[in-house]
Amino acid sequence: MKLGDKIRYLREVEGSLRGLDRAMTQGELVRAIADEMEAPISQSYLSQIESGARPHLTNTSRLLLAKFFKVHPGYLVDDPEGYFPELQSDLRGQEDKLDLWLVGGAERFRRDHELRRALLAISRHEDSRGCLLLLESVLETPRLAERLMDLLRPSAESLVEPTQVSEMRHRAPKVVAVKKGVVR
Predict the structure, then answer these.
(1) For the chain, how many structural domains are there in total?
(2) Is the pLDDT of residue 155 over 90?
(3) Is 86 within a domain?
(4) pTM, 2 dp
(5) What is the rounded distance in angstroms from the CA atom of residue 16 to the CA atom of residue 104?
(6) Is-contact 65 76, C-beta < 8 A?
């Protein structure tokens, strides 16, 4: 992962942690760092880092961002080719990795607002792993997913009483004829 990707990812996580349901903008990040860390960093500098125009952080900026995002300063560099961070084995570490993966997925699907909101909701849940295992059970139980969708997210037609649907289907449509300005 490149440094710019990591900064964008950390802005997404920070936005989620602050209840924004979106990534913090670069401007919001600059203001938060100025307010909370009492140290300046410019939006244009962050933009250059994220775009790759500036491939490295200064040591001062690296330490400032690491302290703000509560990550190790060594995280704020490009990962070497072939590097995989999935070496933790404790369950909490897995839960944290899963939550970060879900937030990353939400960022990838940011244009699909419903899916993004769902992924962020799972990531914020205390037991996101359990949520996904529950989803697996729901999907493997015949017709349960469809019944739950009808119950929890009803379509417009299912909001109408069955007797009303029957009446609407059997009612003859009104015919309106227009002939030379005369409505019948």
Answers:
(1) 1
(2) no
(3) yes
(4) 0.49
(5) 11
(6) yes
Distance CA 76, CA 107 (A): 19
Q: Give the residue numbers spanning the domain of 74.
A: 3-131
Answer for the pair 58, 3: CB distance below 8 angstroms, yes or no. Answer: no
Distance in angstroms (rounded) separating the CA atoms of residues 79 and 88: 17
Pull the structure tokens for residue 49.
């880092």
> What tokens does 92 get?
């909490």
pLDDT in tens, 87-145: 444 555 677 888 888 888 888 888 898 999 899 889 888 889 999 999 999 999 999 98
* Angle of the 3-17 helix axis to the 113-124 helix axis, nearest 10: 80
In a domain, 167, yes or no: no
Tokens, residue 58: 């200064």
Contact call for residues 30 and 38 (beta carbons, < 8 A) = no
Containing 44, the helix (H) or strand (E) segment is helix 43-51
